[in-house]
Amino acid sequence: TPTPTVTPAPTPTIAPTPAPTTPAALPFAAAATPTIAGTARAGFTLSARAGTWSPWPAFSYSWLRDGEAIAGQTGVTYRVQAGDAGSRISVAVTGTKAGYATRSLTSAELLVPAASTPTPAPTTPAPTPPPADVPYSVASTPTIAGTAQVGFTLSARAGVWTPWPAFSYRWTRDGVAIPDQTAVTYRVQEGDRGTTIAVTVTGTKTGYVTQSLDSAGLLVPLPEVAPPPPAPEPEPEPVPDVAFEAAPDPSMTGIGLVDYTLTVKAGTWAPWPSFAYQWLRDGVPIPDQTGPAYRVVAADVGTSIAVAVTGTKAGYVTETRTSPGTAVLATPVPPPPPAPAMPFEATAAPVIQGTAVAGGALRAQTPVWTPEATAYSYSWARDGVAVLGATDAAYVVRRADSGTRITVTVIGTRTGYQSASRTSEPTAVVVDAFDVPPAQPAPAPGDEPFASAPSPAITGTASVGSTLTAETAAWTPEATTLTYVWKRNGVVVPGRTAATYVPAPRDAGSQVTVTVTGSAAGYAPTSRTSAARTVESTGEGYDVVVVLGQSNAQGVGTGWDPAVDVSVPGLDQLAGSGTRAGQIVPAKDSLSHVTTWTTTGGVQSVGPGMQLGRRLLADARPGRKVLIVPAAMASTSMTGDGSYAWNPADTRSRVNLFTRALGQIDQALAQDPDNRLVAVVWAQGESDATRTDAAGYQGMLLDLVDRLGARYGEVPFLIGGMVPEWMNASPLRQAIDTAQQGMPALRSNVSYVPGAAGYSRAEDSIHYTAAGARAMGDKFFAAYQRATGAVQISR
């Protein structure tokens, strides 16, 4: 039997799974052919104008010469080169936006005319030219800071030029000068949309070639055209409205008196609707009163005011709720104002009783005022700085007061009279209790005096570093014990109780004495004091410069550079704050002012003081050093705020910063008789722009300068200008600057130092950067050099 043939079943064919498709990119609804603005001549700048696209994309640019891309020219502007002569310039603009097909369009070409052959000059010999001006060694291309949006302000940044010239500015729109726009800033206008804004900065200086440089352009975008709205969805079948889950009665806040305002509180509705309001007088709607607040009028007196609140929301039943009424009462007649307070007819300054020794007690004795004050309050101060918590009539002198002078301010009050304050004369310099020699022991009964007790003599060279010795001739009978106390200018030198004494630098120019006390059994202790010896002056003291003002004086500038902002041997500071306040320590940024500016992370800030100090040290004669007295305090004003003031005549503020600065200067000069005050730096005015006018500010500053001159002589007083970009933005700030600029005409020792342009901090334009602070230090030094040619330096 034949075997049947088995035919295999065919394998089924499986169709491939189609790959997912990406939605096709949409074409732009509008894409204009670009145009070129500007003059096609060598040296001129051309600007690309993209025209109107919809929607608005991101643009990129490629400039073409005779149809070929120019290497590296992909900005919105192009400066025509000499090599473009005879060529045709165009620009390709490409628009890209997510979901849309990228598109490129090319502008029409502009022909750059070929250079013409110049006509030969006549052969007549030219006159000898004057000496040619030299070019600047550095002239940076300017930049523009700010946002190129309508209503925003752009600022020109000139960059670094060497040497520093005077600048002028010209703002351009698509390469064409904008009329009357020649300031350092420019406010973007509505007509600037779709154009390119740039600035030309020109530097001029005698002896140098005037040079103009153009910034890169900024494109002011056109408003984005919104895409067409999507087709409306078919409306769902209507459903019946439902009631609100919560609709409480409203309430009102306010007082039911004429000219007072009542305000509605709708309460918490669920869900939250849109509200409409209607105010009611005795239940009747008040015409045109449909807002959330109502001002009570005279016609409401004797009625009840309420408000109806209506809540509406799609899908919910509109509901109205009415508040309880508020009765409107007649406004009571206010009592007559009290009689104006009168000044006291006569007041007297308090007198401090007691001895200015650490541990001793002082008391304020106030003479009788006319009429007598019914209450007195007190504030004790150390070198003009209030002592925290010292507000009683008595004060116990502290060791921390040593080396300072104590004053007390008494404030008298009486009903019907204006409060008045008077400050005492300062005490003598406070002496530490350890500096006071122990009292000589009283003689015991029956003790006899020494038959002979000659005074000691001081031998040795009276100069710094040498050794002085107390030589005592024989006493009769011989003293079994001799003790020694050395004094400087009559004040005990702590710890110096040996027979020898080595004068320190602070002893230079001082008179040194020694008191010897002898004792022996059966004889009364006896003391004898030597004749004084004057310690020779070394001639190697400090040139002292004090820095006064607010934050730009103490330094806020970030950008501390370890290679530039370095300490220098011979440049020190008298610390104004911290654990070493009042001590001479090496100077470094941030300088130790009365308050020291701190930044996040402890970053050091840079002020003008260190740069000025380094320049002064390099200029000082051999052997001299420079001591900076940092006495500035941030956010302080001349006019004062009740807490701090620079105005010397201010008695209202808790701390007079000028008085405190005098104490710091006196302390610096007392360190060595060879110390001399050489300059005062003043960098202040920002906080006074809204507190006083130019005349008031200048009057207070003149008083400050005159008081310094009366105390220290006509030392150069250097006024530093505010940050120009910040100052020029406000007429009030410009008024303070005008007052400062007018000072040199009123006082011969005053110099005005213009602010350094181009160095404002991005974080807050009121402050200089570190580079700006260093630039101001250089400008202060230049002004000091000019001033010292005609100003007698105080010693």
UniProtKB/TrEMBL annotation:
Q: Which Pfam families match?
A: SASA (PF03629)
Can you say what this protein is called?
A: Sialate O-acetylesterase domain-containing protein
Sialate O-acetylesterase domain spans which residues?
543-785
Organism in which the protein naturally occurs: Clavibacter michiganensis
Source organism superkingdom: Bacteria
Q: Name one GO molecular function term.
A: hydrolase activity
> Where do the record's region annotations for Disordered lie?
1-22
Q: Which InterPro entries match?
A: Carb_Esterase_6, SASA, SGNH_hydro_sf
Which ranges are annotated Pro residues under compositional bias? Answer: 1-21
Per UniProt, the keywords (alphabetical) are: Hydrolase
Q: What is the lineage of its organism?
A: Bacteria, Bacillati, Actinomycetota, Actinomycetes, Micrococcales
